[in-house]
Amino acid sequence: MHLVLFLIFALFALAGAANLLLQKHPINSALSLIVVMSSLAVLYLLLGAEFLAMAQVIVYAGAIMVLFTFVVMLLNEGREEKTWGSHAARVVGFPAVVALLAVLASAILRAGRHYGMVSLSDGITTTQDLSRVLFRDLLLPFELTSVLILIAILGAVALARKDDGNA
Amino acid sequence: MNTPVPADWYLLLSAALFTMGVIGFLSKRSLITVFMSIELMLNAVNLSFVTFAHEWHAVKGQIFVFFVMMVAAAEAAVGLAIIIAIFRVRGTLTVDQIDRMKL
Amino acid sequence: MNEPMLFLPLIALFPFAGFLLNGLFGSRLPKAIVSTIALLFPLLSFAVVARAAWMVHGGMLLPVAESGAPTWIAVGGFHVGFQFVLDQLSLVMLLVVTGVGFLIHLYSVGYMEHEQGYWRYFAYLNLFLFFMTVLVLAGNYLLMFVGWEGVGLASYLLIGFYIDRKSAGDAGKKAFVVNRVGDFGFLIGMFLLIANFGTLNFHRIGTQLAGHPAISGATATLICLCLILGATGKSAQIPLYIWLPDAMEGPTPVSALIHAATMVTAGVYMIARTHALFDLSPTAMMVVAVVGTATAFFAATVAMVQTDIKRVLAYSTISQLGYMFLGCGVGAYSAAVFHLMTHAFFKALLFLAAGSVIHGLSGEQDMRRMGGLRKAMPVTFWTMTAAVLAISGFFPFAGFFSKDAILAAAFQHGTLGKALWTVGLITALLTSFYMFRLWYLTFLGESRGAAHQDGHGDGHAAHAHESPWIMLLPLVVLALLSVTGGWIGIERFAGFLEPVTGQAAMVDAGHTELFLSVLAVLVAALGWFLAHLFFGRDGEAAAQAAQSLAPIRRLLQGKYWIDEIYTALIVRPVQWLARFVLGWLGEWTLVRGSAWLMSGVVGLSGELLRRWQSGNLRSYAAWLAAGAAALLLFALAGTLLGLNGFADSIHWAVR
User: Fold this and answer.
1) What residues of C are in contact with residue B96 (Cβ under 8 Å)?
2) ipTM of the complex
């Protein structure tokens, strides 16, 4: 059961990511990203992280991607054009990506022998467990994130405001 | 029925997603899709966080993911605002054409 | 034993104090105070020397080494201190240096009265005395070298004293550069001494030589040749004499003090000081003797045709120094030092008298425009006469005794010695001739000032005046010394110096010496007679002789064209080389090359970085990815190289 679920949603995630790359229109890419994120939410659940799965759906697939789609629609960017502005991206970047993948994969494969298995019966990290740590040990960082988000909101407003002459 | 999955499969998936994010960053021409690629990379990293948290039964790994989400939300808000501002000034979101600091 | 208190450092430090006071504050002090300072300190150090001499007379044992001298260099077993040593030789030298030095200071007060930079002159002069006393008192070669270089510096400063005259500056530079060639020899000699003896201390080298007489002749010869090179530079001998005639650009008292009486004798002093080493090397001795004789003869011939009164005296000095070298070369060190002393008296006197003449004629130095000054300047005339008689070697003047001692020693020095004696005797004839030529041209006959005067006013002699007494007093004192300085006699003098210079290779007195002495006086008289013939009455005999000997005369007037030959053979090639080095190596390779290289590197890297910083986001991302891949590869390399496990390798990479 676990294996099946993992394979299905891993496949979804990969396919979504691939689609993100292949689509020419930003709105299609955004929708593909939502697929990826939703699949990841399921995978989080499989790994026993129920709170994160919910947060993933609400924060990422919900809030952030809605923001993305809004912006895409707002700016009304059409299909992206093929431009060749970066020589380095082709000559340096892609070999680097291949090397990156090779290194990561080989490292994971070498180290993975020592790791255990993941199964449905592993038990779940409950929201209660999480909140106990979050609100007790890490209360201050948690509160600081709220300040961070507040500042981000202010920044976003300041940046995106229509330039009415005085900014 | 309840066939377990090796933990490194998750990690491999994470690596694959991350690499695809990098590829997107390098190859996509629209600033918005480049930004999406960044989000993809963040998610890939989050997946490996959760996997390790499961592997070592460490709640703090998950909390780290939570914080990443917060930061990603803030970043998305600011980043998209910047994108709007850039679009307003340049009239385009093609990254190859946005290579100048001065207006 | 109770150490006698001699205050040796004070001898050197008094003039140094004078130098500091006048050098630092002289420009703001009135002339009277400057003169007082300048005279007081040399007098004080002369007083210290005189006290020491008195104590020696009273039976104090020499040498005295000042104890508690601070260490200068201590490297391993090698040790050099600021040690001053007083022995018979340095005592004689000190008496000459501070005594004659003081007289010349006194004279300078009158001579330099109207010159600009009065204080500067006396500061330099005191500086010279400081270094000269250091040179003489030094207990080791290195300290001696300090004085040696210091007097060179003072000499340079004083030759170029008239800073508004280019020729003076050039002459100063020439003296400095030529002396460097000699110093090079001195330095190499010192290095060889360190290598062979491990010390530079005169006394210790002496004891080592006495203890191990087996030091090979070749080593001794090599060291001696190097030291001889140094001595020829300082004492103006062939081949490095060329700076001394030009050094006459300096004020006349300077010529008297530095370039006649004291500094130029430093080479002779050094050889006498090192005689233990020279005694081991007949070759080096021969070189010294031959160089000295050749220089004496050569300079005397040139002196015969010079018209500038100071240049005659300059070549005469070179010639007399040649005599001293001859004395050293035949082993008669005490005779050489004896001649050094008498020469200091009469040559200083000659220069000062010449200075008095020049002063009286408002700066005229050409003997062809002098003449008939006997009446106008009686004191100068009579003192000058004493000096001329002394240098020509007439009995009983000082020069007779010392020159005779040297020639006698040469005569007894084998076959080579006989040949050298012959040349020396001919040189004595020439000396007498050119000195009386100077005497006749300057003081006798009619005044020729008017005949050659073009433009302004009448002849000098018309208003030639005797110098003030402050200048005449030193003349008189020196004249007395020139007359009586030799009466002590070479035997007693040599006996006094014997502890330092060793047993003089003297002399079975009697007939031979008497014969030689008579011969010497006869030769001097012949020189006078010839000079009288040519210059005594009128210029015609001289003119005729000049006509018949025109080629030789031209050769002599051109000073054998040695300066020109040096210019062609050494100066030009060196200048070419310097120009090449400067132009190609310096200018092209180093300056332009490095500038070009630096700008090229900067420009090239700037160009690369500029392309790198394209502003293109995707390019940045590509490099970012490349960097990340490289870092991860680095981390992985740890695991691949056999470190245990991925975690370990991360750990390793981080560390």
Assistant:
1) 616, 618
2) 0.89
